[in-house]
Amino acid sequence: MNKQFLVDKGFEYVAHPFLTNKGQNYKFATLREDGVVKDIHGKHGKINGRTLKDGYWVYSFVMLNEQTREWEVIYIGKAEGESGLSGRFSSYMSGNPKHNKKNGPQNRSMYLRMLEWLPQGKQIQVYAFPVPESTTTKERFGVVKTFPQQEAKWYECTLLEIFEKMNKKLPLLNTQSSYSK
Fold first, then answer.
1. Whose CA is closest to 17, among 5, 31, 27, 3?
2. How far apart are CA 11 and CA 5, in angstroms?
3. What is the rounded CA–CA span in Å between residue 56 and residue 150?
4. Rounded to an integer, what distance in angstroms lies between the CA atom of residue 43 and that of residue 38?
5. FRET partner for 96 with CA separation of 20 to 30 A, picked from 22, 42, 103, 107?
6. What's the half-sphere exposure (Cβ side, CA atoms, 13 Å) at 79?
7. Per-residue confidence of the chain (181 residues) as pLDDT tens digits?
8. pTM value?
């Protein structure tokens, strides 16, 4: 699975990580409203009518393989929080072990890999697909409520299953525990 596969499925380029503070940290530059990719702060551009800070997403990190010149999928993930994809990018910053001793293993792993690869000149991009919004209605105790369904996990797992079938392994930065079959 490569970048073209993602694009063919409707994914769009939304961001890339870049070094800051003389290589001591990194940030994500993201798609802005004017169509330019800049620092994550500011007005966010839209993909299929949704800004990066809204809704649920499935996304993939791709890295240029220097030998083959192919953009290879190295991670597949989902964003389900209130702040959408922008919030997910920000959560990777919590992986800095100097500032957060109790961060999640995925955040720490991603943070450390970026600080290893970016100074080496590795080219990394992020492609994303907005998970279509759907709702469900349920009745409890005589009260009927309609609320959004969280289907990002299903999209993420499906993409991981496709990747595994195509490559006989998971993406470089995903683990078997990152999805359930």
1. 27
2. 9
3. 8
4. 10
5. 42
6. 26
7. 899 999 999 998 888 787 776 767 777 776 666 666 665 544 566 777 677 777 888 999 999 999 999 999 999 999 887 777 777 877 776 666 665 556 566 777 788 888 888 889 899 999 999 888 888 899 999 999 988 777 889 999 999 999 999 999 999 988 765 555 5
8. 0.82
